[in-house]
């Protein structure tokens, strides 16, 4: 899985995506520090402890660099940036039953706009699985020879 590069200066607008999601009762917003437990529990249950560990750094950033999607007060998705490395986006994930409804797009855009607001012109999306999704959603391109990238010395105990 390669890393991808995205031009943050050419991001699609975020607000229309958030409005469409809100019309479907899905809220995408920056997580609050006091929400770390439910967010971490969601990530551990739906994805992995590694991802939960990775995004935990985002809760100590100011502002918090984790966005969440909620439905009726329950976490259904997340996206993080500036957690693993500076200028890196990810990880991100959406509950399986809500995939394909624009939640991932909203979370990705929110996180990448967060990087842009920090002053970055380009962002790195780390170790991408759904390459076509990022190409279509934000025009990201694979970074040649980026595998395994920063994930070269993973502990085997996980």
Helix content: 25-40%
What is the total domain count?
1
Largest sheet features: 7 strands, mixed
- CATH architecture descriptor name: 3-Layer(aba) Sandwich
**CATH class assignment:** Alpha Beta
Chain oligomer state? single chain
- N-to-C terminal Cα separation, in Å? 19 Å
Report the C-alpha radius of gyration, rounded: 15 Å
Regions with little confidence, pLDDT below 50 for 5+ residues: none
Q: What's the rounded overall pLDDT mean?
A: 95
Instruction: Tell me the series of helices and strands, N- to C-terminal.
Output: EHEHHEEEHEHE
CATH homologous superfamily - what is it? Gcn5-related N-acetyltransferase (GNAT)
What is the strand tally? 7
Structural class: alpha+beta
Strand order of the largest sheet: 2-3-4-5-6-1-7
What fraction of the residues are assigned to beta strands by DSSP? 15-25%
Specify the number of helices: 5
Q: Within the CATH hierarchy, at the fold level, what is the topology?
A: Aminopeptidase
Silhouette: globular
